[in-house]
Amino acid sequence: MTAIATPDTAKKAVILVSGGLDSATVLAMAKAEGYACYTLAFNYGQRTLAELVASEQLSQQMGAVEHKVISLDLSSIGGSALTDTAIDVPECGGEGIPVTYVPARNTVFLSIALGWAEVLGAQDIFIGVNAVDYSGYPDCRPEYIAAFETLANLATKAGVEGNKLTIRTPLMNLSKSEITAKGLELGVDYALTVSCYQSNDQGEACGHCDSCHLRREGFERLGVTDPTRYMS
């Protein structure tokens, strides 16, 4: 994606954009707050690459200044149904932390976002983690975000020099329907988003995984049409 010129005086933010419903909403919220948005996605060995296409389309449509895709291979360590095809994607959450949890994923992603934020002179990093309608991932909790923010300000030149870095989590306490309603209010085109853990190359959802269930329920509770495309 070609970088868009932005005034040097504009406040900058790095936005983690996976291509899903939540991160698209976060991007729209950051844009509405007046940030010059620099979007970041990861090709980390996940099952579906359709979400990367979605992240670029969403970034372009919503006027991101620049969009980067970082390649790293978390499938080489495995341990998750999202990065190891030998582990089946479950169709319901079940008890405990589900096998769709990717070990250390948000820590890795936020660390790279932190590095780019330092280079850009951005003091805000946005991530769409949620502690209400989520799958029990430990790196989506408020305690984790607070701990990472402390680390960010201890471990960086920016933090040491008094330019406080903030990890922004505007979806933390919202239900899926509240997130969806906010995005619709801000004009997010959810037809572009891919939330399914195992969508095909065309971005069509399976309709059965935990992420599909949560997404569908959000639209149903609002009483609005779900634009998700499903596999036939």
Automatic annotation (TrEMBL):
Q: Which UniProt keywords apply?
A: ATP-binding, Ligase, Metal-binding, Nucleotide-binding, Queuosine biosynthesis, Zinc
Q: Provide the E.C. number(s) assigned to this enzyme.
A: 6.3.4.20
- The residues that hold Zn(2+) are 196, 206, 209, 212
- So what does this thing catalyse? 7-carboxy-7-carbaguanine + NH4(+) + 2 ATP = 7-cyano-7-carbaguanine + 2 AMP + 2 diphosphate + 2 H(+)
Q: Which InterPro entries match?
A: QueC, Rossmann-like_a/b/a_fold
Question: Per UniProt, where does ATP bind?
Answer: 17-27
* Co-factor note (free text): Binds 1 zinc ion per subunit.
- Can you supply a Gene Ontology BP term from the record? tRNA queuosine(34) biosynthetic process
The pathway to which it is assigned is:
Purine metabolism; 7-cyano-7-deazaguanine biosynthesis
| One GO molecular-function entry | zinc ion binding
PANTHER family linked:
7-CYANO-7-DEAZAGUANINE SYNTHASE
UniProt record similarity statement: Belongs to the QueC family.
* Protein name per Swiss-Prot or TrEMBL: 7-cyano-7-deazaguanine synthase
